[in-house]
Amino acid sequence: MAAGTSAASIRSANWRHSKGAGNLSNVHLIDHPLIQHKLTMIRDKETGPKDFRELMDEISLLMAYEVTRELPLQEVVVETPICKTTAYTIAGKKVGIVPILRAGLGMVNGILRLIPTAKVGHIGVYRDRETLLPVEYYCKLPGDVEERELIVIDPMLATGGSAAAAITFLKDRGCTSIKLMCLLAAPEGLAAVEAAHPDVDIFTAAIDERLNSHGYIIPGLGDAGDRLFGTK
């Protein structure tokens, strides 16, 4: 980050890239300096799988603070070593984490460190390399998934097809409270998810320029799954 660059200027620059992608009223750009610093490191092609995994874990934990900011609270009475007092605990629905396989797995542990009681479901969706359309191949969810505040996670929101399909799968199973969290997003992906699911809030650490002809985010960080697991 250049000297004097502020979080506000980063936000403005990223949002300029998103012009033409629709109103994007449900998109939340998380531009905390620590997240932006770690995101720069994770973009670097010289970052190996070990450091890549650790950085994704750390970014996911930091982003989860913002994603869970609106969880409802309820008053409780506790007794400190000094006296009784009124304090607050999380109320309402419990949290569920739903990674989109396989790259979404790299974001799970960071969120679980923040919310260790969350249950984890898995949705397997791959993008057909020819049509770029999503294909479901696996879905395993907690038995009470429809009663939970769900956070769907995937590092890259490129075309938006896989994320939109995963959210549809959850809605088909009775889920009504869903958020989407990703590290990077392309304007095309944001527009696609918001068009398909205008009731779902999207949280991202960066809005990149565009997609290339192969459906990869530019500048992006390459294939998140391959970099996470050291495959090609």
Features:
globular, alpha/beta, 232 residues, two-stranded antiparallel ribbon, single chain, 9-stranded mixed β-sheet, 7 helices, 13 strands
Describe this protein's structure:
The protein is α/β, with parallel strands linked by helices and 232 residues long. It is built from 7 helices and 13 strands. It has helices spanning 7-17, 33-43, 49-67, 108-114, 161-172, 187-196, 224-229, and strands at 27-29, 73-79, 84-90, 95-101, 119-120, 122-127, 134-140, 149-153, 156-157, 178-185, 201-207, 210-211, 217-218. The strands form 3 sheets. Strands 1, 4, 5, 6, 7, 8, 9, 10 and 11 form a 9-stranded mixed beta sheet that branches. The protein is globular, with a radius of gyration of 18 Å. The two termini are 30 Å apart. Residues 5-22 have low confidence and may be disordered.
List the helices and strands and how they pair.
Elements: H1 7-17, E1 27-29, H2 33-43, H3 49-67, E2 73-79, E3 84-90, E4 95-101, H4 108-114, E5 119-120, E6 122-127, E7 134-140, E8 149-153, E9 156-157, H5 161-172, E10 178-185, H6 187-196, E11 201-207, E12 210-211, E13 217-218, H7 224-229
Parallel strand pairs: 1-11, 4-5, 4-6, 4-8, 8-10, 9-10, 10-11
Antiparallel strand pairs: 2-3, 6-7, 12-13
Helix pairs in contact: 2-3, 3-4
